[in-house]
Inverse folding.
């Protein structure tokens, strides 16, 4: 029996990625990373800034996402996100811009703890990208 | 009776107008294809979003504490209308149809003694509404600078709506746009986005096999998801609108080109007739002059 399932990543403008031969996907959910294998129970969750790793038979792909919703059902993982890019074609300028805008946001006084946490996390992830 | 020279001038001017409308039609046709593609590409996102919300709202047991964006504030005193139109004219009845639809909604709201607030997106809508409803317009947004429709713009509108909702500035929110059916037909739409109308469920309930695990709990996901859904709906409306605009412009310009062609034909006949008349007149003059000799 195969242990493969489908993944659909869509953003508002288009379908970003659609594959039917992945065996594991690791997603950065708000409450921690979740690794998803075939026949996972149906789940809905949303994402925090982080890296989605998609493992298929032939290759491993990584994508940076800012936020989004994931739904797993009937062995199809749907990721809805408005900002995503492949780590391979990450734009240095864009990354550093995002870092500085997040840091600027952090320096404001009127943000709540949750937002601060998310922003801190975002900066961390983005920095790890720019080092690679 | 216009002179031959006048007729000749008119024919040239109609012909050059025809050239312009023809070019506009071609441009619209090219843009239409792209807009249509974009609208199709954007569809999976809003469909999936709808699905997730449907599944979520099914599993919400505590209806009273459900997020207000879903169930509403319990009142419907203040109506916020988002009117999405084009930034450019010369596209047939496109803008007018949306405005007409919106106006009938406005009249209904006003006659029921409810407060009306209007946000116009796109400059043509603002131009047409400002005369009559100036005092109701709270915001006027235009994305003239953006070349393509992008989610970022839609998100801006969405954020404005959410912000106003959180400040309790309205209870009900509806958007107006043209739905693209085909090149000739665009249907003006009125869609309520706050509170969310019962999400349609076309599939029959297939038992409880959709028991989802939620992380974090349903409420939190919903309150995160609903604002996104508003932006998504606006984005969808903008995509539909842009496809409709190009379709509408294409048809309008096609008609204009054809009309110009007919006009040229008619003018040419008139021109030829009066030329012939002049020749005949001259001939008669010559012949009668010769006879009198």
């Amino acid at each position: 029996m195969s242990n493969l399932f489908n993944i659909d990543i869509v953003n508002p403008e288009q379908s970003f990625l659609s594959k039917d031969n992945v065996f594991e996907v690791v997603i950065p959910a708000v409450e921690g990373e979740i690794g998803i294998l075939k026949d996972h129970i149906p789940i809905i969750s949303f994402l925090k800034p982080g890296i989605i790793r998609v493992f298929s038979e032939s290759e491993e792909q990584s994508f940076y996402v800012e936020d989004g919703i994931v739904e797993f059902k009937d062995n199809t993982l749907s990721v809805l996100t408005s900002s995503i890019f492949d780590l391979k074609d990450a734009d240095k300028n864009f990354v550093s811009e995002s870092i500085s805008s997040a840091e600027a946001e952090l320096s404001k006084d009127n943000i709540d703890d949750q937002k601060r946490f998310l922003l801190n996390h975002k900066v961390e992830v983005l920095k790890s990208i720019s080092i690679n | 009776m216009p002179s031959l020279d006048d007729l000749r001038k008119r024919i040239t001017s109609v012909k050059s107008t025809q050239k312009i409308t023809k070019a506009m039609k071609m441009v619209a046709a090219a843009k239409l294809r792209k807009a249509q593609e974009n609208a199709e590409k954007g569809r999976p996102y809003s469909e999936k979003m709808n699905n997730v919300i449907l599944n979520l709202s099914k599993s919400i047991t505590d209806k009273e504490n459900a997020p207000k964006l879903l169930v509403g504030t319990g009142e419907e005193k203040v109506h916020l209308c988002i009117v999405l139109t084009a930034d450019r004219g010369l596209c047939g009845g496109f803008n007018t149809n949306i405005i007409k639809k919106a106006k009938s909604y406005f009249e209904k709201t006003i006659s029921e003694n409810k407060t009306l607030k209007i946000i116009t997106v796109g400059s043509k809508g603002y131009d047409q509404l400002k005369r009559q409803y100036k005092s109701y317009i709270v915001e006027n947004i235009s994305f003239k600078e953006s070349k393509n429709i992008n989610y970022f713009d839609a998100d801006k509108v969405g954020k404005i709506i959410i912000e106003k909702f959180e400040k309790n500035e309205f209870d009900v929110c509806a958007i107006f746009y043209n739905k693209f059916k085909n090149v000739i037909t665009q249907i003006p739409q009125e869609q309520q986005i706050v509170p969310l109308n019962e999400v349609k469920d076309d599939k029959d309930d297939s038992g409880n096999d959709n028991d989802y695990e939620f992380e974090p709990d349903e409420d939190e996901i919903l309150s995160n998801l609903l604002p996104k859904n508003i932006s998504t709906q606006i984005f969808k409306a903008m995509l539909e609108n842009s496809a409709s605009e190009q379709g509408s412009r294409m048809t309008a310009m096609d008609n204009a080109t054809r009309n110009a062609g007919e006009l040229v034909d008619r003018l040419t006949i008139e021109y030829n007739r009066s030329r012939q008349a002049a020749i005949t007149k001259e001939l008669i003059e010559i012949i009668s002059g010769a006879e009198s000799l």
The CA atoms of residues 66 and 148 of chain B lie 36 Å apart. The interface with chain A takes residues 38, 41-42, 44-46, 48-49, 51-52, 55-56, 150-151, 154-155, 210-216, 221, 224-225, 228, 231-232, 235 of chain B (CB under 8 Å). The first strand of chain B starts at residue 78 and ends at 84.
